[in-house]
Amino acid sequence: PDDQWSNYWRTGQNALLGWDSQLPGNGAGAKTMGQELANSTAFARCQVEKVFKTVCLHPPANDADRTEVARITGVFRTGGYRMKDVFAETAVYCKGD
Predict the structure, then answer these.
(1) Which residues pair with 27 in a beta bridge?
(2) pLDDT values of the chain reduced to their tens digit, one per residue, 97 residues
């Protein structure tokens, strides 16, 4: 009858996806649902991992790679979700010595 939604995944095991506590967790329409999904830690990590695979030519394979993916995910989230920052940070990491 309407386009209202509530994110029941904010509790329980799906809370591990890292939902943004500054968002209400409910809304109306696709735009607000997209904001809910896009502001999760899982979304940010997924985007960073895709860039990592593209730039480094392999998925994160060891502890150093996974630590760097976590760091770049933080940069991505705090930097306003700018993909160019993710590409730049990843390129610096993967260039080697």
Answers:
(1) 5
(2) 799 999 999 999 999 999 999 999 999 999 999 999 999 999 999 999 999 999 999 999 999 999 999 999 999 999 999 999 999 999 999 997 4
Q: Hunting for tokens 């309407």 — which residue is that?
A: 2
Three state DSSP letters for the chain: CCCEEECHHHCHHHHHHCCCCCCCCEEECHHHHHHHHHCCHHHHHHHHHHHHHHHHCCCCCCHHHHHHHHHHHHHHHHCCCCHHHHHHHHHHHHCCC
CA distances from 22 to 2, 18, 36, 39, 62 (A): 24, 12, 10, 10, 33
